[in-house]
Structure formats: C-alpha cells, structure tokens
Amino acid sequence: MKLKSLILGSVAAAGLSTAGFAADLGVLTSLDVCDALGLSGLTISSDTNCLQLSGGVSYEFNWGDFRTESYVARTFDGNRSISIDDGRTDWNSKVEAWLKAVGTADSDFGPAKAVIKIKEVDFTRIHRSDADLDTATAGVQNTVIDADGELDGLFIDEAYVAIGDTTVIMAGKKGSIANLDDDAPFNFLGLFNSDAQDGKGVGVDADTTYLGGHVIQVVSDLGNGVNVGVALENLNSDSKGINGSGAAADLVARQAGTAVGVLSYAGEGITAHATGAAIGILDGNVESWFVHAGATGTFDAFKVRAAVSYYDFFKHGTQGGKFAGNDIDVLNALASVEGTFDLFKIALSGEVANTRNNTTGTTFTDYGVGGSVGVTVTEGVSINLGARYFFDDVADESTTQVAAQIVAAVTETIKVTGELGGYFGNAIANNAAYANDSVVYGAAELAWAPGGGFTSSVKGEVNSESAYKVTFKAAKSFE
After folding, report:
1. Per-residue pLDDT tens for 205-218?
2. Where are the alpha helices (DSSP H) in 211-277?
3. Could you point out which of 131, 150, 175, 269 has its C-alpha 20 to 30 Å from the C-alpha of 243?
4. Which is nearest to 292 in space by CA: 266, 274, 313, 278?
C-alpha cells in the first residue's frame, strides 16, 4: 500500500507542477476501476483501464570444478552425468529480471486484458584450465540458452490479449494451456526417469518447444471444478535454434503448429486432468502426438497419485540424440503414495517407461522405484532418509542412490540443510570417466528468508570424484 501511495502521490505532484499536463495525469489517481474489476496489488488506473504491475529479479553465482563435458544419458541424476574433477575452474553468473504489465478493462464479454512481460537474462559461463591461464585464449565464455528456451539478453517473454470471465479467449505469445501436473513423485529424492523431465513428471517435458509460443487459446470454467480448454500453439514454430534453409527449414515446417485439448478437475481433495496434443498440424502432416493424464487424491493422512503418458514422435536426424532419425513410441507411467503419521512421513514411488523403436523394430523397458522416510525430531528439526533405483534396459545398467538429509530451522528466517549420499551400480562401474564404482557426495545449504518476499541461500557441494561447487542465490519479486 505504501508503494501504491508513493506512485500515486508522485503522479499527482507531477500533474500539479505543470498546468499543461494536469488534466492528462489527473485520471491516473482514481482506483475505482481496479476495485470494480476485483484487482489488487500494485495498480494504476485511468477512467476505463486498470494497469497492474509486477516484476522480479533473481541472481545466481556458481564457482568450483563442476562443469563436466561428458554426457551420460539416462544413467545418473535426471539424465545428467555426475560432476568429476577435470582440472578446470568453472564459474557461472546469471541475472534474471522480468517486468509484467497487465492492462484490464470491462467489456460486455468480461474483462479484456493486454499482457506484456519483458524478460532479461544475463548469463556468463566460464570454463578454463590451468594450462590456458597464460595464453591469449584463457577462458571460454558462452552465450547460452536459458531455462525458458530464449537467448541470453532482453526479450519479450509474453505479449498477448485476452477477453472473458468464465470463458476466456487468448491470442499472442504466451505459455501453453497444457496441464502436465499430478505426476511428481512424493519421495524426497524423486525418481530418475521422472527427473529427466523438465517438470519432473511423466513422459512430456513441460519446456518442450512444441507447446506455447504464438497461440490462439480458449479455456472455460464449466463449474463444479471442471475446466476445459482448446488451443492452437507453436504457430511460429519457435524450435530453439532449428532454422535456416534446406533440411532445417523443412524440419521446422513439418513441426509447426500444435493442437492442444485439456480437461481438468479440482475439488473435494481430488485433482485430475487429461491433455492431448497433435504436433505439425499446419501443413496437415501430423508426425507426432501425445496424451498425458494424472490424478492426485488427498484422504486424511494419505496422498495417492498416478499418472500416465503416451508419446508417438518421429525424431528427425537433424535433432540429434540416440533416437535421431527414428519413429518412437513411449509409454510412461508413475504411481506414488504418501502417508503422514504423527512424527513420521513415509513415501513410496514407482515408474516404468516402455519404448518401442518402430524404425528398428526393437522394444525395451526401463523402470525405477524410490522411497523415503521423514522424521520430525523436534520442532523445527527433521530428518529425511531416502533411496531410489533405476534400470536402463538399453544399456543393461542400473543405478542406486541413497541419501540422508537433515533440515533445521535455526530461527524463523534461517534454515540449514545438510545431505550425505552416494550413487552405486554398474552404470558407474561401466563408465571409464569415473575412478571408482561408486560416487559419494555431501552438501550443506544455509537459506535466509527475512520476509518481504526476499530469499537468499548459499550452498556447498563436494563428491568423491574431487568435484566441488559453491552456489549463491538471491531473489525478490513484487506484485
């Protein structure tokens, strides 16, 4: 409220100081429009429009010897290789900032909105060896792709119009309406194959290039917790750098346009959804499609979750990866249950991924299980014990991770987390990059949240392969 008063006071003062502008700026001092539209937060209004402002800044710095160039698919934590000591000092520095403006006015069809979100990502990544320190080429700095698939720098993250109340029509650049929820395991370590998905779920990466982008979307609240939605997405075929001419341009054309349909429910302790999508509809040649469904039920001391997805896709040779140039069908399923009993919390999870390569005629099945036990030792102190296992049918390799974690609230604003664990199995033994058949690691984090939406933390990690990493984070948002 103080920030709102400050802004409105500044506008009023500016209007009084210059008689020529007084009439124009005076309309910015009434908030009746915002109140009538049910809008709150940082708002400025004219006679007909209410402007909501929100934004945020986050910073992350990493330093150590952690950036491993080798990539070991589906073997370790979330499709990533474990860091090893390669004799190089690494550091990353990343600033993310965003500013969002939503202009809303009343209409005969419900609130009419224009949304603009500007984002800036400034990411510097250094990876250099001691041997390079005295050379002119010391250090390697890269412009990289951030988590949202946009290039480093300033860009428009969202720009769309919307109108409606119970039924809303949206068009422009924005995220997908696809519901990919109800599919994250409850155990604190998660599951290996699940972690390979950006949304840490089942089968479909929430950050896929085929969802969102330039869109035309319609969503409707049917009442009683039921919502439906249909959309045309990826109309600009923003495929993260797949562009140019010849085969690359043809690939973009064949993957342009995604039709999305969603049905979801939320109420009485149950959430559920079903999402379907067809990829490449603009030229009438649908080469890929998927369905994703999940449900979560909360019943007194128990939570139960189940999810399944089926993905039929053709991976062109220019896309790379171990399935490049192949027609692939993947069926993923996950189930998880959690029970809370006084001082204890127990969670069990399982996953399976059945993949058929229609090009080669081969079929293989990966599977994994995981579990954890949480114990509240005293008020503010808890211990988590967990383990997970994964079997890779293609490589005939398995990996097991075990970990013990302690979380202590030192004060109302300071929390300390420590974790000790290890990775074991022939997936590590068969990899020449690692000196031993197992990798043990330790981590400690100090988090501080003094209020006002400000959060910060510092974390240190080290493992038996002599890799180490120190991470500092700080963030604040406003709305």
Report:
1. 777 778 999 999 99
2. 247-254
3. 175
4. 274
